[in-house]
Write a structure and sequence with these properties.
Distance between the termini: 41 Å
Number of strands: 0
Order of helices and strands: HHHHHHHHHHHHHHHHHHHH
Radius of gyration: 27 Å
Helix content: over 70%
Number of helices: 20
Shape: globular
């Protein structure tokens, strides 16, 4: 068989592989299949709704500006996706195929065509088609749109793959996953901030929706490919045919450059060595146990707490859970101030989000839990194990609440509500931690074995995660009713509400200790069952 025929066979195999990956994803479990179908339906509805909204703007002043801004946002999202969510798509990781006898050019063509398959490209086709319809005017625009939409889609896919291949080794390392965790949270915060700013800009006019405010932004981004390709539809409709051709050529030049960069990255990945092929110099440096570690209690409790604090800093899956809780607290606090409903009591959400980290205390151990289970011979051993894990959560959760509380009080001017808000937040934290200990013993679940920080459960266990999370939230709400009732009695009568702080601290501590006591009584006997559940099968 000739080399060209071999390359065509490789391309067909890679496209078939992408189809098989999508199909096999539906066969893992009924819950996963239902989640996939639901996500697909929601995504298609979003794409259809966005396309319909853009088509409705056709002929309205500023419609082309709105289309340009939308495509610019899509371009930024596609460029950021491999940096923040690289490991969520196995087919986008070229390092998985570097050991196979594949030519880089065939690998590029196969993965490029495979990238056109799936719900993501379909949703983007709908949005790009709607953007072209909004910006177009007349038959010339329609003719240009036939070229502009597929050209833009190909450029977006090439951008996604080129960025991923160019940073594959960095993103596959632990530091790369740390970057994905922090970058993903920052990207989510920036997206929410941009959404708030755009809403306030569009709705700030007395005339309601005013697209003219987008013109300054569109006048800049319309010259940046691939936005230029969609804006070529507007240029053709206005009779500027040479300008439209230039915008299409500009996008084509970017596509060619991205394909060249992608091909060069694939060649480097497939022929050059990395750190995994080099001998590392052994290090005999002992683990550092000084500094802040000295504040931890001696014995098993302190050792367990130190181990889980190291997990929270070094393990990407643990780190994304911790910083997601902190990030959500920051987002809700900022929204309360920006949207005008600012209240110091919003930090109670932080107590809940951080307390939910106790909902699956043994999932991070995975198969290594057998070594811990072997040491759980008495109820005291189980109690010390749980106390150490809870102490690790409190070691970062309490400082975060003490930091966010005064900050929100300063921004809202509600210093009188700081003490009761902290009391409520600490009560919620204690209730969540105590309930989490009980749930961790009775309903643990496995984390993904691939170390993907953007997945919080092994395949087929998403239903258990949802039940765990919602059950915890409902349980915490019920358990904290006494503190809420005390707050409700003091506030309407204009009585000093500061007693809620000591009451919340004592109540939360009591619930945490009660949860540890109840869970420790079952942990010794259920250790083998917990081990079976936290191992991905």
């Amino acid at each position: 068989m000739s080399t060209a025929a071999d390359d065509r066979a490789v391309v067909r195999a890679l496209v078939a592989l992408k189809v098989r990956l999508l199909r096999n994803g539906l066969r893992r479990s009924p819950g996963l299949a239902a989640g996939y179908v639901l996500g697909l339906v929601v995504g298609l509805l979003f794409g259809l709704g966005g396309a319909a909204g853009l088509i409705a703007l056709h002929g309205r002043a500023g419609a082309a500006d709105a289309a340009a801004v939308l495509v610019a946002g899509l371009t930024a999202a596609w460029a950021a996706m491999p940096l923040f969510f690289f490991s969520s798509d196995e087919s986008a990781d070229p390092t998985r195929l570097t050991m196979l006898p594949l030519r880089p050019s065939a690998l590029l063509r196969g993965t490029l065509l495979g990238g056109l398959i799936g719900p993501g490209p379909l949703i983007n086709v709908l949005l790009l088609t709607g953007a072209a319809a909004a910006a177009g005017r007349g038959p010339a625009s329609a003719a240009v749109a036939v070229l502009a939409v597929p050209l833009t889609l190909l450029t977006l896919i090439a951008l996604l793959r080129a960025v991923g291949a160019g940073n594959a080794r960095m993103l596959s390392s632990r530091r790369g996953k740390d970057f994905a965790v922090f970058g993903g949270l920052l990207f989510a915060v920036l997206v929410q901030a941009g959404n708030l700013g755009l809403q306030s800009t569009l709705n700030g006019s007395d005339r309601g929706l005013d697209l003219s405010v987008l013109h300054p932004y569109a006048s800049v981004v319309r010259w940046i490919p691939p936005v230029a390709a969609i804006d070529a539809v507007r240029s053709a409709g206005e009779g500027a045919y040479l300008l439209a051709a230039g915008q299409l050529l500009l996008t084509g030049a970017l596509l060619a450059g991205l394909l060249r960069w992608w091909l060069r990255s694939l060649r480097e990945l497939m022929v050059s060595g990395d750190s995994s092929t080099l001998l590392e110099r052994p290090s005999a440096a002992p683990a550092r146990t000084g500094g802040l570690w000295r504040l931890l209690p001696a014995g098993r409790v302190g050792a367990v707490a130190q181990r889980h604090l190291r997990y929270a800093w070094r393990e990407p899956r643990a780190k994304v859970a911790v910083f997601t809780g902190i990030g959500m607290t920051a987002v809700f606090s900022a929204l309360s101030v920006v949207q005008g409903w600012g209240s110091t009591y919003v930090i109670a959400i932080g107590g809940l989000m951080l307390g939910l980290q106790a909902g699956n205390l043994f999932g991070m151990d995975g198969s290594g839990f057998w070594m811990i289970a072997a040491t759980l011979s008495t109820r005291r051993d189980a109690r010390d194990e749980l106390r150490g894990r809870v102490l690790a959560i409190l070691a970062y959760a309490v400082p975060v609440l003490l930091l966010f509380g005064p900050a929100v009080a300063a921004l809202t001017g509600d210093w009188a509500g700081l003490a009761p808000a902290l009391g409520l937040a600490l009560a919620v934290l204690g209730a969540a931690v105590g309930l989490g200990c009980v749930i961790s013993v009775h309903a643990p679940y496995a984390l993904p074995a691939d170390g993907n920080p953007m997945r919080n459960a092994a395949p087929g266990q998403n239903g258990a995660v949802m039940l765990n999370a919602f059950g915890s939230m409902i349980g915490v709400a019920v358990l904290c009713l006494p503190v809420g009732a005390l707050l409700g009695l003091l506030l309407p009568g204009h009585h000093p509400a500061w007693p809620v702080l000591p009451a919340g601290v004592l109540y939360g501590a009591g619930l945490a200790l009660l949860g540890i006591w109840l869970a420790s009584g079952r942990l010794v006997g259920r250790a083998p069952e917990i081990l079976a559940k936290v191992i991905e099968r």
